[in-house]
Amino acid sequence: MTARARVYASITSRHAPPPPATRRLGRALVLGGSVAGLMAARVLADHADEVLVIEPDDAEVGAGPRPGVPQGSQVHALLAAGQLQLDRWFPGFTAQAEAGGALPSTPADVEFYIDGVARPSVEITDVPGLLSSRPFLESLIRRRTLEFPGIRVLTGRATGLRIEDGAVVGATYAPNGDAGAGVDLDADLVVDATGRGSRLADWLEQAGWSAPPLVRMPIKLNYATAVYRRDPKVLDTTTLVNVSLTTPVPGRLPRTGGFVAAEDDRWIVLVAGYDQDRPERSLEDFTTRCRRDFPGMFGDIVDHCELLSDVVTYHQADSRRRDYDTLARFPARLIVAGDAVASFNPVYGQGMTSAMLHASCLSAYLRGEAADMLGSGSGGGAAPAEAAASANGSGAPSAAAPAPSGPDLSLPAKPYFDLVRVIVDAAWQTSTFPDLALPHVPGPYPRGYRIAKRVSESMLVGSVIDPELNLRLSRVTGMLTHPDTLMSPGTVVRSLRSGRRFRKANAA
């Protein structure tokens, strides 16, 4: 196992740490109340007397998609690693979600098609999957977070940071409906979880600090979603999830389709294309794509089930990332999480799960454990143990040492960003490799891309006929294990052989 795969395994632990004996923070501010902000607030509740979440949307999440989440109506996937993190930080979350209407799923309920050929589903955890809409899931996360007595939501918009003597000492926000100059809030720690549209880079540069370069990969994704009634009298099926991919080859456009069962007896159905292949808002175009491009059950749903919504479209121009771990100079007491760090092609469902793993990175940092986790180096910008220990002032604890008291908050949170880099690199690698195969994507191409492309394409199609390869790949796409686990010589050879067998069997 590579060093960064070991770090990744530590971050994705399903075991919740015990709360610290004392809280070192008086007040913490979280800018943004989406999944990343709520998960950060939950972790901070163990370390701060008061946690204030600044969020402009004051509507109850469960009533529907929030204005701050423009893609909230679309299909969202909770990957296996994300579900384990929810149960880690909110014990009993899965059971509570099921009691509230979310559907449990097993491999037998899931279908996955590659170029029209079914890939068997495999069991990658001992916890049943959890199926729901994004608003349902976010609403429950919010309710569980706000059960902590020290956490409150302030309805308003963050407007800037307050930085003094090299450290963030608070933020300003404008309460909803207030046209004034804004309100100053003091804080011992600030988390930016304001998403893809984060203004942190501007705030830093205005205050004389550098921001990491914004790396973009133009994917030009276009997708559309509609909701239908799930009635077994109309369509009797045991399938609860279907994901169907067509890969790009000459004469064939890359397309993605999916449907998922959700609470309140609904099907949420999605179709997606790239570049100039744009699903329209018309029901005619939506139903045509379902019937023409994907397995028969797509057509069965749109032809026989009651339509409950308009067709809603969404466009995402790029995948993007900012590598804060690379900055030589950065304010202390400042954390960045979720899409404000990196966001990916939503087809792969990594967004919410990445945000949950960022919360685990925050926990490790605040508990002073980051240096120990990074001790062997992550291979993704992370410091060795000695450097991390010097950066946070806590030292790298040995197995027999007492639990560390936490980081030196007068220094930048580099150990945190080093951990986050491991998560970002893993998700970026898993999503951008297939995206780079799209004819309209110009890069950037990583070193060794051509060889890796051949292996990854063989791995994908080979997993249809090779159960062990399918299991290894599914654990990576479920974000349970790092992509490096697929790069062992044995797995590479197995992928090439299985891919060759698949292509030969489907040559006709």
TrEMBL record:
It comes from Actinospica durhamensis. SUPFAM superfamilies: FAD/NAD(P)-binding domain. Residues 383-406 have a biased composition (Low complexity). It comes from the Bacteria. Residues 1-20, 376-406 are annotated as: Disordered. This is FAD-dependent oxidoreductase.
